[in-house]
Amino acid sequence: MKALKNNRGSAMPFFVVILFFILALVAIIYQNGTMITTGYSVRNAMQKVALNTVTQNSAATYPSKREGYTGAYQKLGSWQPAVEAIDPAAQLTVMLGLTGEGEDLVKCGSGGEELYRLTNVQVNTENTAWQDRTDGIKATVQLDLVIAVKYPLVGAKILTIPISVSAENKMKF
Length: 173
Prior knowledge:
Blueprint: H1 2-5, H2 12-66, E1 73-76, E2 78-81, H3 88-96, E3 99-101, E4 104-108, E5 114-126, E6 137-151, E7 155-169
Helix pairs in contact: 2-3
Keywords: Membrane, Transmembrane, Transmembrane helix
Transmembrane segments: 12-30
């Protein structure tokens, strides 16, 4: 009877459950932090690609800006659009240290495991309408970030996050 009334060590299972809960919470916070950091670095690289596209096409805007228009046009008998397309995948590969797998770009860890994948990478460069003085050249970079997030007790979940950034070249005056 006396052994049944002894409560020494009865909090140990509760302590173990709380410890596992805290460890799972730390793992979830770490995975979410990794995912957010990856998203920010990919978005920043995309912003650089959009700015590079606009900057590359800025040289083509000089003759038309001289005439008072903001678009990229060149005079070949008459004014013709002069917007160059660039390869965003090549720039992202250099900036983020990616490798190509078909049409996708993949970031691998030091052990060779896939950290994330960029799919549907595209850049759209829009020229302003002829004789429009308000808008400028606009470059929009779009892609899908595919990342595997490993949560404890749930396993790996594949998340696809669409990201889009844009940059524009406008006249100040």
